[in-house]
Amino acid sequence: MSYTQDDIARLRSAISKGASQVKMGEEQVTFRSLAEMRSLLAEMEASVAGSAGTGLQHYPQFVERP
Predict the structure, then answer these.
(1) How far apart are CA 18 and CA 12, in angstroms?
(2) Residue 10 and residue 2: Cα distance in Å, rounded?
(3) CB burial class (10 A; 0-12, 13-18, 19+) of residue 32?
(4) From CA 31, how far away is CA 22, in angstroms rounded?
C-alpha cells in the first residue's frame, strides 16, 4: 500500500488522542494495541521517506586513540 503524509498525520493524531480507530482513505481501521499502531507508523514513515529518496546514509567514523 502507498502511504501519504496525511495518513501519517491521521495515525499520529489517533495515537496522541488514545484512539484505537483511524479512517484511512475509504477504510476504517481498528487496531488491537498501541504497539500495533506504533509499528504501522514506523512502517508508514519508512515507506514515505523511501519513496521521497530522503533516506539517510551512515558512514563509519574512525577515531585514533592515544
Answers:
(1) 10
(2) 15
(3) exposed
(4) 8
DSSP, res 5: H
**Cα 29 from chain centroid (whole Å):** 16
Q: What is the pLDDT of residues 10-51, one digit of tens each?
A: 999 999 999 988 887 788 889 999 999 999 999 999 888 876
Annotated domain spans of the chain: 5-50
Does the global pTM surpass 0.85? no
E strand residue ranges, the chain:
21-24, 27-30
Phi, psi of 4 (to 5 degrees): -125, 170
